[in-house]
Every structure is written in structure tokens, then in C-alpha cells.
Design a protein that fits this description.
The chain is mostly helical. The protein has eight helices and no strands. The longest helix has about 30 residues.
């Protein structure tokens, strides 16, 4: 199997790749913890925003698991993993939109204080993820995907804190529903961003790497 010089560089297993694996394992564990906490509180507190955050973290966790597969492989393999990540994000976004609509018509009484405290805790762990990912941001399309997802999480948590305060101020579920819609929009955008980057990486790699990765 012939390889280009660039492909040899991509698949070489060195200290850098070992560091990437450790980073992904850390952020994978952090995101699964976020899923459990945000999902549980979201159900108890009847918060669409927190359920959206849990779904977003679940998507991130799956993305990191796929990225573990991609580490040390060819550009084509990484691009395929990133494509799967983008499709997953878009699917979760559609599901979140459906949940927002269901709660709009069925009614809900979200607990603003629970939203704020949970979102702040989630934001703190996202800061840790960003710190871990920062050193690897330029190492491949799969890590750029991870960076985009974690950045989106930070924006979503800021919105949940604001909506929780508005829920308490106006005694209305509408701010929570609106942040649910906003999170869905960010998830859709993140999925689209990753699909575009994966497509561009595939085109740049060319057919020789595609044949070599088969």
C-alpha cells in the first residue's frame, strides 16, 4: 500500500498522539458526567434548556468517542469521523426542536434557580474541557470539531443562566423554551460547520489517501 509523505506524517504514532488520547478520555468522561447531571436536573426542574444542554453534552461525548477512533489515522479517516459527528449534532438538534414544541403545547414550570446553578456548574467543567483541548486545537479536523462543540456548550450555558433568571423574574416558562430553541440553533450550526470542514479536508486529502485508508 503506497502512501504519500503527508499521509505518513498523519498516521505516525508518537508522543503527540498519546497526549491526544489522554485529552479525549478526560473530556469524554467530563461530558458523560455533564449528561447525567444536566439531564437529571432538567427532568426534575422541567427545563427545556437543561435538557438541551444534556443532549448537547451527549453529542459531544459521542464525538469524543469517535475522535478516539480517529487519532493517529489518515486525514480521510478523521474526516469520516467528523462527518459522523456533524450528522449526530444535526439529528440531536432536530430532536431538541421537537421537545421544545412538545413542552410549548403541553406546558411546563421550569425552576429558574436550578437552571442557573446547574448551568454554572456545567460552564465550569466546560472551561476545564476548553483548557484541555486548547493545546490540540490545530492538530486535525476531529479536534477542531471538539473545540467547536465545547465552545457552543459555553454559549448555551450562558444562555441558560440568563433564561433561568428571566424565568424567576417573570414566572414564565417562555425564557426556558427560547433558550431551548437557541441551543437547537447552535447545535445545528455546529453540525453544519463540522460537515463543511470534513468535506474540505476530504477534498484536500485527495483520492490517493482515500485509497490508502480503505
Amino acid at each position: 500500500m503506497s502512501k504519500t509523505k503527508g499521509e505518513d506524517t498523519e498516521i505516525r504514532l508518537d508522543a503527540s498522539n498519546a497526549a491526544e488520547r489522554r485529552t479525549l478520555l478526560w473530556v469524554l468522561g467530563i461530558n458523560f458526567t455533564q449528561v447525567v447531571v444536566a439531564g437529571t436536573v432538567g427532568i426534575v426542574a422541567q427545563s427545556t434548556g437543561l435538557l438541551g444542554a444534556a443532549l448537547d453534552n451527549l453529542g459531544d461525548a459521542v464525538v469524543y468517542a469517535v475522535s478516539l477512533y480517529a487519532v493517529g489515522r489518515t486525514v480521510i479517516a478523521k474526516s469520516r469521523a467528523a462527518t459522523l459527528s456533524g450528522i449526530l449534532l444535526i439529528t440531536l438538534a432536530v430532536g431538541l426542536l421537537g421537545e421544545v414544541l412538545r413542552r410549548f403545547f403541553a406546558g411546563a414550570e421550569p425552576l429558574g434557580l436550578a437552571m442557573i446553578l446547574t448551568a454554572l456548574a456545567n460552564a465550569a467543567t466546560n472551561l476545564l474541557c476548553l483548557r484541555l483541548l486548547r493545546a490540540h486545537r490545530a492538530h486535525g479536523v476531529h479536534f477542531r470539531a471538539s473545540w467547536i462543540f465545547t465552545t457552543n456548550d459555553m454559549l448555551a450555558n450562558a444562555g441558560i443562566v440568563l433564561s433561568g433568571a428571566l424565568v424567576m423574574l417573570f414566572n414564565s416558562p417562555l425564557p426556558d423554551l427560547l433558550i431551548g430553541l437557541a441551543v437547537a440553533g447552535m447545535v445545528l450550526k455546529g453540525g453544519g460547520d463540522i460537515l463543511r470542514e470534513a468535506h474540505q479536508a476530504t477534498r484536500t486529502a485527495g483520492p490517493r489517501q482515500d485509497e490508502g485508508s480503505a
